[in-house]
Amino acid sequence: MEFFDLIEKRYSMRGFEDKEVEQEKLDKILKAAQLAPTGVNFQPFKVVVIDAKKYKDELNAIYSPDWFTQAPIVLCVVASKDDAWTRKYDNWNIAEIDATIVMTHMILAAEDVGLNTCFIGAFKPDEAREFLDLGDEWEPVLFTPLGYGNAEPRDTPRKSIDELVIYK
Ligand SMILES: Cc1cc2nc3c(=O)[nH]c(=O)nc-3n(C[C@H](O)[C@H](O)[C@H](O)COP(=O)(O)O)c2cc1C
Description:
This protein is an alpha+beta fold and 168 residues long. The chain has helices at residues 3-9, 23-35, 56-62, 95-112, 125-132, 161-164; strands at residues 45-51, 73-80, 86-87, 92-93, 138-146.
């Protein structure tokens, strides 16, 4: 799909069909994660592919809306601050930004192959860490359901370009 059509078409999907995701589509989405740029190319992330049917109760304990577990797959990007680049001037660590770029790559790739997603940041972090069981180093940054959506978009108007852009 042409890039601008894709970003105009994408919206946060909050309802999914009970329909499997083809492996080749998932592979393409994971390739998009691999191709994501990260600070100094440190790649301080992992993508966890979660079977939403198998772990429905555990996932809904992390984030409760029904639609979170309607799709067959939930993806989570976890990041390691230990592995990520830190800006020397103020010790600012870039791990969460790297992870967010990775998730954005996957979300746009999903749209490109006809699948739908929704960034999820409002999950319970302690429950997520316990469920993922990857050790203290790996911080869960974002989740998304991944599947065939069946919900309408919410009304999410954007601010005007004038409000958002500063020429200096
Ligand atoms: C980093 C991030 C975290 C988000 N977390 C949640 C969330 O926890 N739950 C939710 O329903 N939507 C979440 N959203 C979706 C936003 O509400 C949504 O992107 C925004 O309202 C614009 O709507 P659109 O995605 O349909 O264009 C998140 C979006 C981003 C970018």
